[in-house]
Amino acid sequence: MAQVKLYGRRDVWAERRREVSDLVHSCLVEAWGLPEDKRFHRFLLLDADDLICPQRGDGYLIIEVLCFTGRSDEAKRALIRTLYDRLPYPAEDVEITIVEMPKVNWGIRGVPADELALTYKVDV
């Protein structure tokens, strides 16, 4: 399981949501083996005055991946490298964070996630 939150300026990213979502999802499928149909992306787009980061350009984008614990450090590095390799945006303007949580901390389809039978591996 992975959920993605993307933070950026509304005036820059609003019209590019599908493009970014497709790109991020393809990287998750390639690097982590997520199923094609497991896409959970939220765009948290802000007014220019609400995203203060003078060291970054207007296209500053934060990609936060929330996921179950269990993936190896190499799998996390592979995702980060794949994202940076494919993003058609300046690497200086994109930050990626991976936030892991035990399955028991997630509730999905009415049960704690540690009770779910997944169709894909998490421990890669």
Please state the average pLDDT score: 91
Structural class: alpha/beta
Beta percentage is: 25-35%
User: Major β-sheet, in short?
Assistant: 4 strands, mixed
Could you explain the architecture of this structure?
- Strand 3, helix 3 and strand 4 form a beta-alpha-beta unit.
- The two termini are 13 Å apart.
- The radius of gyration is 15 Å and the shape is globular.
- The strands form two sheets. It has a four-stranded mixed sheet with strand order 2-1-3-4. Strands 5-6 form a two-stranded antiparallel ribbon.
- Helix content is 27%, strand content 27%.
- It is built from three helices and six strands.
- By secondary structure, the protein is α/β, with parallel strands linked by helices.
What would you say about this model in short?
By secondary structure, the protein is α/β, with parallel strands linked by helices. The protein has helices at residues 10-13, 17-32, 73-86; strands at residues 2-9, 41-46, 61-68, 94-101, 107-108, 111-112. Strand 3 (61-68), helix 3 (73-86) and strand 4 (94-101) form a beta-alpha-beta unit.
How would the blueprint of this fold be written?
Elements: E1 2-9, H1 10-13, H2 17-32, E2 41-46, E3 61-68, H3 73-86, E4 94-101, E5 107-108, E6 111-112
Parallel strand pairs: 1-2, 3-4
Antiparallel strand pairs: 1-3, 5-6
Helix pairs in contact: 2-3
Name a few traits of the molecule.
four-stranded mixed sheet; 27% strand; two-stranded antiparallel sheet; globular; 27% helix; alpha/beta; 124 residues
